[in-house]
Predict the structure.
Amino acid sequence: MTDVVTGPRPGASTDLVGPWLRPIATGASSAVVAGVRELDGRSVMWIEVGSTRLLARTDFDVMSRAVADAASVGLPIMALVTTMAPTLGPEPGPLVGWGGVARALTAASGIVPILFLIDGAVTTGIALLLGLADVVIATDHAIAYVSAPRAVAATSGRSVSPVELGGAAVHGGQSGLASMVVETLEDAVVIAADLVAFLPSNNLSEPPRTQGHDPVDRPTPRLATLVPDDDRLAYDVRDVIEEIVDDGELCELRVGFGRSIVCGLARLDGHTVGVVASQPAHLAGAIDIPSSQKAARFVQWCDAFGIALLTLVDTPGYLPGRDLEWDGMIRHGGQLAFAYAAATVPRLCVIMRKAFGGAYIVMDCATMGNDVCFAWPNSKIAVMGASGAVQILHQRHLAGFSTEDALGERQRLEDDYAALHLSPDDALRRGYVDAVIDPTQTRTALCRALGTLSAKRSVPIARKHHTGPL
Amino acid sequence: MSGDAAEINTWLLLASSTGRFRPAVAADDWVYLGSLVGHVVASGRESPVHATRAGTLMGLLADDGQLVRDAQPVAWLELAS
């Protein structure tokens, strides 16, 4: 390591959280500064990128070295970017420089957590580095795109502003790039520190366990009424999560993207858990492409860092749609199935209400490999709901009735189907559910189950890497 | 704020509204500025999509009947030199 800096560069935001501990790397340029820094008691590799000038090759070399050092010593990477764009000129050095950073980030992926905090413009192909990060926290001032507005205009005549093309609102919703959107850089650093507190420093360490004051046997009485019995009625699953986890605290990621599934970090009995929950408040909890992508990435990330998974299921199935199929529902749906099936961390599943069809399977069902599966007494685990099943199974039978009589007959058949199939009892008998629990005992049951699984280990068969659906 | 350098002799034709796209041209057709490329149909109303540059229509980016959003690319041209 050469050209060691002796402290933060002037104007750097080093007074936000804590002092520098051991600066590691920098180059001749001052556009990038990197070093180990303490953030709320945790050491992280802190990389600051930002200046009024564009980045040179040496800047990218500094970033690459810092990323490689972080992976080597097992420290989370926290890159704070105010502006990031390469110098474009006859020399290819700056342009190819970020390729080295991409390579270093890829090598560090899954070894240490990678967080990017964006508070300005990240433009050109270098913006793809953000796509390699585990978590991107964008401020309201963040802008990121590969091709500029003028390039959009030059190929379509469409006038679009930088904010419209790649502002924080775009990346917090439509694109799904930003895991979180906050107002200021200070907020971003605080949120990042909160997030790191859930995470191990690297894949060989255990996630930190807190000594909480929330009793593991705390009843959860609100769960008896939060979820309506009528499965056509919506509710916000965040309320359910908050009732279950320690101190009601959920650190949700990608709130505005793939909204029919909620993903976030929380704790159970002090253990970090990654929560994946159907969200009936959006599209009735039906899985679509964005929600599938979001959940798949989150499950894979949790698994990489030894974070147990808690899956809360209330989904009517996959969202139907021709364009959805054309856009690759199978390809992207496969990502979620792959991520769960490959995960070796402790996996807890609670079927709260509906668990229908293929969506039930990919939401960590027993055959996908969950370790413990609880169901609430009113849950419905089936290929489909009563209405759809009767339509398919008894279509000819119903055709023999007059319109008026068919309504009554249809209702009778639906009631019979519901009584026979739409309960957890059959799944319990077949071993797809381990226990039917009272909703008010959900937290207790989950904490106990997680305790018994905390020593879970797996030894995968060696291979170069999987060929899963990226 | 600059973006990636892109020198593409390509022009995208965009949907004029949200609805089902109905193409009126086929690949390899030559289109003039203002040529009718297709329609976007919504609630029984047709909104024409006209070529905003002249060139060879290299391909459709939306299939016949596909739901498109306003300003979604529906075809691409290789521009006349």
Notes: Chain A has a mean pLDDT of 88.
